[in-house]
Amino acid sequence: MENGRPRPWLDLLSNDPKPTGAPETSAERDLNAVAEPYVGMEFDSEDAAKDFYSEYARHVGFIMRIDQCRRSDVDKRILSRRLSCNKQGRYVKPRDQVRPVRRPRPSTREGCKAMMLVKVNKSGKWVVTRVVKDHTHPLIVSSGISMDERDMKIEQLTMELEREDQLCELYHGLLLTLLDNVEEQTELISMKVSGIVNDVREFETEVERLPQNELDDN
Question: Are the C-beta atoms of residues 28 and 7 closer than 8 Å to each other?
Fold first, then answer.
């Protein structure tokens, strides 16, 4: 325990208990240098929170998954974000879908509950409001504290999907704005056409009321 906070993940570095007084390994020094998430922790932006949790995940021994978010009903900006372990949830086999027969692969989902939830406050800071540190699976911490290519690719693709999601939200908003403008212009044109039709009808009515001799003179 350090500074009153338990650090159970240090036990993952070795299956054998560490002798009392033995010097720290380089991996332990790196782990000690990484802060643990806690409720009330603040970040300047959502990306800063993601970077922190991704770095924390690498050092502890799991892969971060950029999970669900909640958006504003007004401007669609993100108000909260959940960052989870990549083994979060359970694999659900799709039903009634015709797909090519493939060799089944083991699912990476193990129902892990580990996560960090951050919300933006009125001052624009992103604050940690909930943290779950316990995992339902073994954590893998190597002496080099590095990720293999597959895990790095998963994280890169996850962040890329998040950016694509943000772009889709932006395009969706622009499309709605365009459709609103088209609808307004259509209504305006319709009103103008209706006004012209009414003017023509009034003119025809006035012409019909004129005496026949005036029409002949014209």
Answer: no
Domain finish residue from 128, 147, 166? 147
Same domain for 75 and 164, yes or no, is no
Residues 28 and 125 both lie in one domain: yes
DSSP state of 8: G
In terms of domains, do 130 and 24 share one? yes
Structure tokens that stand for 108 in this block: 């990476």
Reported as a single tens digit per residue, the pLDDT across 162-203 is: 777 778 878 888 888 888 888 888 888 888 888 888 888 887
On whether residue 1 sits in a domain, the answer given is no
| β-pair partners for 120 | 126
Residues 119 and 195 in one domain: no
C-alpha–C-alpha distance, residues 152 and 162, integer Å: 15
- DSSP for 162-176 reads HHHHHHHHHHHHHHH
Distance CA 32, CA 30 (A): 5
- SS3 per-residue string spanning 32-98: HHCCCCCCCCEECCHHHHHHHHHHHHHHHCCCEEEEEEEECCCCCCEEEEEEEECCECCCCCCCCCC
What are 48-102's pLDDT values in tens digits? Answer: 999 999 999 988 888 888 888 999 988 889 999 999 998 886 655 555 555 555 5
List the helix and strand counts (H, then E) for the chain. 4, 5
Total-model pTM:
0.50
Side-chain-facing half-sphere of 76: CA atoms under 13 Å = 11
